[in-house]
Amino acid sequence: MKNITLLTILTFILSSCMTLHKGYLSPISQNIDESEFAYNRTVHGESQATYVFGLGGGKPAGLIRDAKEKLRTANPLSDGQALINFTIDEQFSTFFGIITTKKIIISADLISRK
């Protein structure tokens, strides 16, 4: 009986911490002729929510919208600039099933007219 209990506890401890990733790339959302633009850099914004026993993470705007607003606030566009090729990465982590974290990272290519 002690061996089964020890094995169960050991299995729970070793298998209860994990991180999952997923993401996708959006198509160019504007009618932009890329030959008229030059690539400047990649910009990003991120947002995160943490849950303890499933409670928490009460962001009123939502994680994706919050990350997008942070991206735009940190990288204001000048005349002749545009953001294209938005990528959304999602990371989900859990520690012993008690603390769960969800993180959204939105990145985009900043381009400007040649």
Task: Describe the model.
The chain has 114 residues and is an alpha+beta fold. Helices cover 23% and strands 49% of the residues. The chain is built from 2 helices and 5 strands, in the order αβββαββ. A 5-stranded antiparallel β-sheet has the order 1-4-5-2-3. A hairpin with a 3-residue loop joins strand 4 and strand 5. It is elongated and about 75 Å long. The chain starts with a helix and ends with a strand.
Helical fraction: 10-25%
> What is the radius of gyration computed over CA atoms, rounded to a whole number of angstroms?
20 Å
Query: If strands are numbered along the chain, what order do they take across the biggest sheet?
Result: 1-4-5-2-3
CA-CA gap between termini: 74 Å
Strand element count: 5
Mean pLDDT: 83
Low-confidence stretches: none
Tell me about the largest β-sheet.
5 strands, antiparallel
Order of helices and strands, N to C?
HEEEHEE
Structural class: alpha+beta
Strand content: over 45%
Number of helices: 2
Write down the overall geometry: elongated
